[in-house]
Design brief:
The protein has 408 residues and is an alpha/beta fold. It folds into two domains: 137 residues, NAD(P)-binding Rossmann-like Domain (Rossmann fold, 3-Layer(aba) Sandwich); 213 residues, Dihydrodipicolinate Reductase, domain 2 (2-Layer Sandwich), CATH 3.30.360. Helix content is 35%, strand content 26%. The chain contains 14 helices and 18 strands. The strands form three sheets. Strands 7, 8, 9, 10, 11, 12, 15, 16 and 18 form a nine-stranded mixed sheet that branches. The chain has a seven-stranded parallel sheet with strand order 3-2-1-4-5-6-17, sandwiched between helices. The protein has a two-stranded antiparallel ribbon with strand order 13-14. Bound molecules: NADPH dihydro-nicotinamide-adenine-dinucleotide phosphate.
Length: 408
Amino acid sequence: MGKVLVIGAGGVSSVAVHKMAMNPEIFTGITIASRTIGKCDAIAASVKARCGVDVATHAIDAEDVPALTALIRAVGPKLVVNLALPYQDLTIMDACLAAGVDYLDTANYEPKDVARFEYKWQWAYHDRFREKGLMALLGSGFDPGVTSVFAMWLKKHKLKTIRRLDILDCNGGDHGQPFATNFNPEINIREVTAPARHWEKIGGEGGAFVESPAMANKVSFDFAGVGPKTMYMMYHEELESLARFIPELERARFWMTFGDAYIQHLTVLQNVGMTRIDPVLFNGVEIVPLQFLKAVLPEPSTLGATTRGKTNIGDIATGEALDGSGEKTFYIRNICDHEGAYAETGNQAVSYTTGVPAMIGAAMMLTGAWKGDGVFNMEQFDPDPFMAMLNTQGLPWTVEELPAPVDF
Ligand code: NDP
């Protein structure tokens, strides 16, 4: 149904490209382009060995808009799938506009010099995409991504309104390293050290984000397939789009689990200044401490072989039942096994749970199941075809009714 150009060659890209190759009737041609061509070639070799599909590779700096525009024109894809870093979102969107090609990503744009997670920069592209008859789909990973589709599925099939929503992200995997992050360390640590924010309507009026210090609010939760874990409230970008597209939401929060060793290491790194994102002068050269830290930490893509355990990510939503039976609470989630993900694609479950929805979002666009002119979030489309593909493409989900709303 169409050719894709995938930008970036990390763990998420590797999973997405393997899964695209497993769906050749949808993805009729695949090219990967990234800063380091050796990483593109390694993914292409693995895809050839596992799936027998040829993937073309190119070197590109995705922040060089003229070079990227020329590459898009030369490759001639129907869709550009951005699996590089959030810093490149706007330049890749610019190149898609210049070349007249659709766009998809898994994380909202972040400026390099300040850790802000907002859709406003990308929403500002809506008219330019609409006028050119092009589509951009934002945040097609797991969270953001599947967590929003889960909420919209509940709104379509179970709940007339969603009054309260909690997103619970648990990684119960153990990679055997004293300290390592499961996706890009720089992006991960910027996210975790930012102040927490949740959406709340005080007194039923309006609605606003309420800020609290990073990692200050924690609670223990017993995750199916994993067991009890401490989860911390933090800000996550889908809260912004959920608050926009589910206007009746009275409260929306995001929780992520972290082990004690992770918190201890992070606290020390923060206290000594290693998580700073402003440049410091070292031997006459400006370096950003967090970027240096990334350089000495294990590459997330190398953790797959040793990671054991499961992830469990889902939504708990409370609202008025569609069938008129009063207030109900539902828990919808996926459990993914690290070793199973590694056996299938050579990557651990955090990359897998992001790369599979990136492939499914791309499939929605290439097949026309999701279409529109402009910039869109996941909440704006019919959840059913996406949810059906989750079940067939390696991320099956379950939904259960809980006896009561969450008590935390
Ligand atoms: P990695 O760091 O493993 O990979 C990023 C890739 O982008 C690398 O290959 C890197 O190249 C490449 N890249 C960086 N800068 C440029 C540039 N200027 N031009 C071209 N290529 C560039 O990250 P992950 O695979 O872990 O994550 C990929 C994306 O997925 C990130 O945006 C992340 O935020 C997002 N994500 C989303 C999740 C979700 O659920 N929605 C969850 C997890 C991640 P090089 O190898 O040379 O450094």
